[in-house]
Design goal:
By secondary structure, the protein is α/β, with parallel strands linked by helices. The longest helix has 12 residues.
Amino acid sequence: MLIEERVFFIHIPRNAGRHVISLLVNNTNKCEFYDFDKLIDGITLGHLHFPNYEKIFNYKNVIKFAVVRDPVTRFISTFSASSENNNLDIFNNQTSFDKFINKWRNKGGNNWFTPQVNFIDYKTKLWKYEDGFGKNFFEWLKNYFNIHINKTKNLKKVFNDMDYDNQKLITLTTQQKNLIHNYYYQDYKILNYEYI
């Protein structure tokens, strides 16, 4: 999402992106390139990953930021919202888990299971989902990007809730979490999350 032609918000799926977009649309002058009806290189415009999103602002030097999330909680949110949320066979072993994720990653238009590090580059400023979206987040937006969030109540809804937003979240065992950790090891390393 391009904000006032100077800042780009990288919307990583299942990381509160629709909420952040609502905050930005309601509090800034001009926001564009955040819809989900258009595809670029086979990926939904609203969820483009690096370097695909650079095409929409013509590779200009803009400041970028993204919200990142612990890979296990992100996976739980993603899997619970997927159409295959009852397919627990994926947790049989690492091979079945990897095969499932890779199948989804190669599906046209859907990059929900793509590792978060594939969305960013070394210049992207990062906010951790776990730090919340209140006063500290607003201060961070103001200090780094000169974006002022004043309106937080009665926001005009940018997106309607989806059926999957109310799906019950799955509960995972330690062994199942290990499969996620092994697949998303780069997210843990680069995004500075500790695996417990």
